[in-house]
Amino acid sequence: PGGMERHSYDVVVVGAGGAGLRAAIAAHDSGARVAVVCKSLLGKAHTVMAEGGIAASMGNSYPEDNWEVHFRDTMRGGKMLNNWRMAQLHAQEAPERVMELEDWGALFDRTEDGLISQRDFGGHKYARLAHVGDRTGLEMIRTLQQRAVALGIDVFMECTVTDLFKADDRIAGAFAYWRESGRFIVFDAPSVILATGGIGKSFKVTSNSWEYTGDGHALAMRAGASLINMEFVQFHPTGMVWPPSVKGLLVTESVRGDGGILTNSEGKRFMFDYIPDFFKTETADTVEEADRWYDDKKNNRRPPELLPRDEVARAINSEIKAGRGTPHGGIYLDIASRRSPEFIRKRLPSMYHQFKELADVDITAEPMEIGPTCHYVMGGVEVDADTQESAVTGLYAVGECSGGMHGSNRLGGNSLGDLLVFGKRAGEAATAYARSLGDSRPQVDEKDVKSAQTSALAPFEVEGGENPYTIQSDLQQSMNDLVGIIRTAPELEESLSAIEAFKARASTMVVEGHRQYNPGWHLALDLRNMLIVSECIAKAALAREESRGGHTRDDFPGPDEEWGTKNLVVTLNPEGTGVSLHEKPLPEMPDELKGYFA
Ligand code: FAD
User: Which atom, in ligand 1's list, is nearest to the CA of 212?
Assistant: First the structure.
């Protein structure tokens, strides 16, 4: 339609977190004309909130570390459901990507020998997280953002993508609106890279911000791509529980990596009661051994507080359920009695301020109260391991909105590495594809532009319906209660009926006012995505009759060998009204890699 703002690029990247920025830089460096579109201000993605670090087997603290050990840890952490090729590429390439960040100006913490310092995290055999205090994401975003801006990459910020265009079954562009003015933009581009992050806002208690409404997941599905691993949602063991205004806010795993322990209301260090057989040989079973490990990792096994996140979150959940929780319904995380105030303030400056300012708790003097919080989605767009291309030609997905790399459970630090490794790969592949088209690029059909516009404006056309805030809040509560950390068939069935009811309510939701900065309208559009994504999670969770990683079924408590050989793949149904599910065998790991798990 006439007068609509319109731009043409080789590659459009949706999202300006670590994944999007790294992809944009790679596309630019490969010669593409590239734009980055993001729905908040540049720099305000989730990546900036990342605290602990970037996992990379640089071997600076432990020369015995290498990609094979990192690969093994990643696969075991994901309970072997990871796409082995992605886990391999990630482990092999993460060290190079960290060094490159340093070349671009990132200032990492140092070892005494002047190398990049590496910290301990759950599930990693050796200390391998490159970090900057507990503000690693900030430094990563600062570095990538500065580079992207210096390279002259076009950035469209406070601009939300609501539709993708296709022609001849290939990507032709994207449709977006400026949040401030409500005006529409059409991007003509043969390659679109989704880097929109996660889905955490579908849950009530979450460490995620308003941006995580699963837009990329839903955009991909609507374009005809598939998602995998959607039943696997990571509940981080340690979120704040008090005061209510900050419930869910993340307390970094570094607190435990640096010596913090978990205790219940009886003062018991309870994690020793929750060591699963799978991790017995590598976990300390006495307090003495666990405490020695911090200084001598060669001759001692790691403390049970540093088991993978799913194990720790379930243990905390059980303790609270058994009535051994804290006054505000959490568990104690204590570093005050274990490390000096100087050490704590130096290693965990953000945590110190977070608790002081938000909860009036001095973490150098008293324990924190914490509980599980929805943190990360392992599931995402099903992509080719080497190029990150989805089932739709020209559509790529990278970072948290892609699936496969982390299997059923992500290890801490492996997300930031994922963004860098696969961001680069996606940017390069998207550029190569765009270039291969020469002058014969798919053209956006004007009819599709019109219908994207109609669809975006639909919430203004309804009269007398409900406002989106109530529906969103009911959805969040329902997902928390019925599709949370411990699941059962009857509750999952109930959640699916609830989602159908929310969909019906959403079809008549109404927004007041005009297109100029109108948060109610923005939410109405985001809510459609949240509903699709929530349905994917609940449906896949109901189908997978076993417990594995970030999916725990009370009615199927253990892992099942048969389920360990397959993924659940979800697509939008042909009518576009809901999601369909099918099983798919895992890609076969080559024999030389199988050897690491003998
Ligand atoms: P993000 O960084 O979230 O970026 C998403 C981008 O997409 C944003 O720019 C957003 O505006 C944009 N966007 C979304 N939808 C649209 C749309 N429709 N149109 C336009 N733009 C859109 N991982 C680690 O490895 N180590 C850690 O120490 C660590 N700590 C963490 C701490 C916290 C508090 C949290 C929340 C997460 C942490 N994680 C950590 C996880 C990690 O930070 C995230 O998984 C990762 O940063 C996601 O990066 P991303 O680039 O995929 O998405």
Answer: 14
Query: What type of residue sits at position 558?
Result: G
Binding site membership of 19 for ligand 1 (Cβ less than 6 Å)? yes
Instruction: Provide the 3-class DSSP secondary structure of residue 78.
Output: coil
Is there an atom of ligand 1 within 6 Å of 214 CB? no
Residues 193-238: tens digit of each pLDDT: 999 999 999 999 999 998 899 999 999 999 999 999 999 999 999 9
Is the minimum distance from the CB of 389 to ligand 1 under 6 angstroms? Answer: no
Ligand 1: does its nearest atom lie under 6 Å from the Cβ of 403? no
Residue 54: which of 423, 361, 464, 434 has the closest Cα? 423
| Cis bond upstream, residue 243 (ω within 30) | yes
Residue 571 CA, chain-centre distance (Å), reads: 20
Instruction: For residue 450, report the distance from its CA to the centre of ligand 1, in Å.
Output: 31
Nearest atom within ligand 1 for CA of residue 141? 2
pTM for the whole structure? 0.94
Q: Please tell me the distance between residue 415's alpha carbon and the centre of ligand 1 in angstroms.
A: 9
Cβ 416 under 6 angstroms from ligand 1: yes
Helix (H, G, I), strand (E, B) or coil at 220: helix
Residue nearest to atom 33 of ligand 1 (CA): 50
Report whether 385 contacts 351 (CB < 8 A). no
DSSP state letter for 419: H
Pocket of ligand 1, candidates 12, 14, 46: which has the most ligand atoms within 8 Å of its Cβ, to mutate?
Answer: 46
- Write the ipTM: 0.99
Residue in 541, 554, 536, 420 with CA at minimum distance from that of residue 486? 554
pLDDT on residue 490: 97
Helix 136-150 crosses helix 18-29 at what angle (to 10 degrees)?
A: 30
Sheet holding 579-585, edge to edge: 402-403, 380-382, 227-228, 566-572, 579-585
**DSSP assignments along 517-550, one per residue:** S-HHHHHHHHHHHHHHHHHHHHHHHHH--S-BTT
pLDDT at 2: 56
Query: pLDDT digit string (tens) for 99-144?
Result: 999 999 999 999 999 999 999 888 999 999 999 988 999 999 999 9
For ligand 1, whether the C-beta of 136 sits within 6 Å is yes
In the sheet with 34-38, reading across from the earlier edge strand, the strands are 154-157, 34-38, 11-14, 191-194, 395-397
